[in-house]
Amino acid sequence: MGALAGRGVVVTGAGRGIGRALAVRGAQEGARVVVNDLDADNARAVADEIGGTAIPGDVTAPDALVDAAIEALGRVDVFFANAGIDGSGGPDSLQAPDDVWDRVIDVNVMAHVRAARALVPRWLADGQGGRFVVTASAAGLLTMIGSAPYSVTKHAAVAFAEWLSVTYGARGVDVHAICPQGVKTQMLEDAGGLQALLSRDSALEPEQVAEAAVQAIEEGRFLVLPHPEVAGYYAVRASDTEKWLAGMRRLQQKVDEAGAWG
Hints:
single chain, 262 residues, alpha/beta, Rossmann fold, 51% helix
């Protein structure tokens, strides 16, 4: 019996991409799955495919989702906080207006915070604990070339997951942060000339990310690194920040010279 077998699982942003792969894999593991997505048709299609329950809606206001999921499942044991957006990319993302920053922060950070607010007290109160899984990005561990809102909020998503683990890990709340590089999703397709950069260590299928997540959950590892080489990059960034930044500046120059922004 795996960690997901028989569990009540919620996956946000599960209408396609990594979220869909997580929902499918959860069902294959024997979980009872709630499929959430802003696109109601996509949510229903995935739920029908896996025998799950579709609860469409906006993850930035997750109280209704949590309540509906508890009604459908009896209990939410595992919450995959997967939904995320890119925001503004390109060479001038510093100039992204405040409303873009506000929306990306709302989806990529505050949605996780609000979901945890709704779930963690319940998990502590009944003494059974729970599992909170954040889909962040390698951009949350490393410095991202491209969208400033995306890079900053993915760092914040990892930081929040770390805080949750530190604060509640000894009280039965298991936390994981999924941090892939390029994955063959709509977000990668929309990256334009940056696709090659994001895929330099190979672009993975969403199913490979879901497999890495399940394996990390089984092994009790906080960091989920579908691209194992990210661990090495992360170590260099931490041990020799000046070297790391110099290398990233060179990479930025190459991107600029190649006109990757289109």
